[in-house]
Design brief:
With 263 residues, the chain is of the alpha/beta class. Helix content is 43%, strand content 14%. It is built from nine helices and seven strands. Strand 2, helix 3 and strand 3 form a beta-alpha-beta unit.
Length: 263
């Protein structure tokens, strides 16, 4: 492929992209980045106030909807509604997630279940609803009917203290990426993952900003800083673009080199 063809392959103009967790943190940055790159964006969140604010920020050419990622019927209904209004769904980026910091000996089973339900089971619910819809869509010029990107974590690969449920759920996301990619290629659906390093967001800011934990994380990162939310956007654009037509079943790590550094 020539460089001209590659860069034109990054074009996502007119693609309809649903971003769950798309009203805050990395999801919000991805939603705004996709919109700036020419996609028609649907940002989803379970928080109605954030949905309304994001609708105004995105503007009239885009949408923002309420969606509980743990609710199967709602997920299916939202997918169907987007397809009806936009014609199809080309990509789903699943960025919704929660975290609980508590010693594992003290963690209530109900809290463990809630984290896993949102982060892992929610990833499956969203993927399944998207996959069922995409399977019935007409293929594009590359034979693809859609793509799904699940947001994993550094905790998918290594352990950080006192966030066991989060780590377990995000480890499971890697299994979903591989399993769904393997199974759904036959339908023309690509499935990949993004694993961000340490990015300050509303989800983790109290844990890492101005804390000993945060200082250790920064020092363990070769680039010696936290990530900027915008630094995830390019990878998301690539994974939903035609240039990624032969990429499936992989999770891109964007961590400033964190995983490369040992003792």
């Amino acid at each position: 492929m020539s460089s001209t063809a590659f860069y034109s392959g990054l074009a996502i103009n007119g693609k309809t992209c649903l971003v769950t967790g798309g009203t805050s943190g990395l999801g919000r940055a991805i939603a705004l980045g996709l919109a700036a790159a020419g996609a028609k964006v649907v940002a989803a969140s379970s928080n109605p106030e954030k949905v309304n604010a994001m609708a105004k920020e995105l503007g009239k050419d885009h949408l923002a909807v309420e969606l509980d990622v743990g609710n199967e019927k709602q997920a299916a209904d939202v997918m169907a509604g987007i397809a009806a209004s936009c014609g199809r769904i080309d990509a789903v980026i699943h960025a919704a997630g929660i975290i609980r910091k508590v010693p594992s000996m003290d963690m209530a089973v109900a809290d463990f279940d809630k984290v896993v339900r949102t982060n892992l089971t929610g990833s499956f619910i969203i993927s399944q609803a998207a996959g069922r819809l995409m399977r019935g869509q007409s293929p594009d010029a590359q034979g693809m009917r859609g793509c799904i990107v699940l947001v994993a974590s550094l905790n998918s690969y290594m352990s950080l203290s006192e966030v066991l449920a989060y780590a377990a759920s995000k480890s499971g996301v890697l299994g979903l990426v591989r399993g769904l990619a393997n199974e759904w290629a036959q339908y023309g659906i690509r499935v990949n993952g993004l694993a961000p390093g340490v990015f300050p967001t509303d989800l983790n800011r109290p844990l890492i900003e101005g804390t000993p934990r945060g200082e250790w994380l920064k020092k363990h990162t070769p680039l010696n800083r936290f990530g900027n939310a915008d630094e995830v956007v390019g990878a998301a654009i690539y994974l939903v673009s035609p240039s990624a037509s032969y990429t499936t079943g992989h999770t891109m790590v964007i961590d400033g080199g964190f995983l490369t550094r040992g003792v």
